[in-house]
Amino acid sequence: MEYATILPQYNVILIRYAEIWLKSQKVKVRMLKTMMNNIKIALEREEVPFHKYQMSKDSSRVFFFFNNEDMFNAINVILRVFGIHSISPVLRTSNKAKNIIERSIEVAKKIMNPNDSFAVRVKRSGDHDFTSIELASLVGKEINDKLSYLNLSVNLTNPDKIIYIEVRDDFSYIFTDIITSPWGGLPIESRKKLFILDIGRLNDLTAGFLIMRRGSEIHPILFKMRDDTKYIKKWIENWRLAGLYSPYKNFTINIIDLHAIITEVIPLLKNKSLICSLCRILRFATIDKLKDNLEIPVFQKTRAIVDGVSFNDMNDCYDEIDLNSLELNYQFSGFPIFTPLIGFNQQEIKELNEKISKELIRLNYCELKPQNQIFQAEEVIETFKRLDLESLVNKALKEMKKITISLLSGE
Questions:
Q1: What CA–CA distance (Å, rounded) separates 196 from 108?
Q2: Which residues pair with 403 in a beta bridge?
Q3: pLDDT tens digits, one per residue of 148-181
Q4: Structural domain tally of the chain?
Q5: 288, 392: one domain
Q6: In this structure, what CATH number is given to the domain that contains residue 64?
Q7: What are the tens digits of pLDDT across the range 97-119?
């Protein structure tokens, strides 16, 4: 981590949030409590010890307290939690000007080089004996006086070094870095559950990740299209990497053997060019029956499907197949269908994948696609009904496999 200075005096991480402020007071309080709990679970999962955590009196900041030697790991873990705008490793002291000046000089001694220019930026919340401008002026003057041997200069426009001070009621927080979260978003809440329809495309996982970033708890349903153990292991590893952004110690996926269904159906098809269209409809029909066929509360509370379709020719199936079948999907599924990657181009998706994890593996997920793929709505619907595919869907659901992935550090 090259973007933060962790001084020996630091033992607190100050956490800011942005989008949560747009919510009503009731929703904001709920989301803040959820975010703090998500951070707590993520730290425990990665075995990063902390002493306590608390919210500022004005509810504008969250603070987690650590031993100094654990700060590095803590920053990396916290930055994966959705809902955070930025963080800073900080030194905490009282709200007295004398203490603030003394501790600021300590920090300055650690970061200043000869002939550096510097600025002091101050924010306050609460009642104090000084204004923000007065405190910044006092601290800047004392740093110049006490470190005169370094020949420092004040530059408020483009300084070499900045010392930040936030005075919040009874305490002050001194720091040198503001680390912006790569994700932002909203904290994941268990009350918002969605199915992720994944046929093995990296796009499906990425679409699920974007929905998770918007505060939803995701439940991946993996439709296996290959009988290949190594392939399945790589697929599951991709989801383990995505699961590290969730606030859980375990991440559950369910695998449905779509390969077995399609293999059984292919010999019965009059027009084998319809395989991809039929395969897509089968996936939605299967998920629609999921909550009715299984006595699992989490499935019964799920309210929507996430689909990784994106019109940029990144997948095995043609974009036009996905586009045309979107309309048909609603005849086989009563769930709303979210397609968060629709507006992304190839390069944007590739960059997003690397940002999630450079270890994500692109899979050759289908071995049954025809050389020529076509879409004919009436023929697809007629074929689905004629072949009684509903019975195959029910069979696949009964044989569905549940896999729990441990996200605990070292496992």
A1: 50
A2: 253
A3: 999 999 999 999 999 999 999 889 999 999 999 9
A4: 2
A5: yes
A6: 3.30.2130.30
A7: 999 999 999 999 999 999 999 99
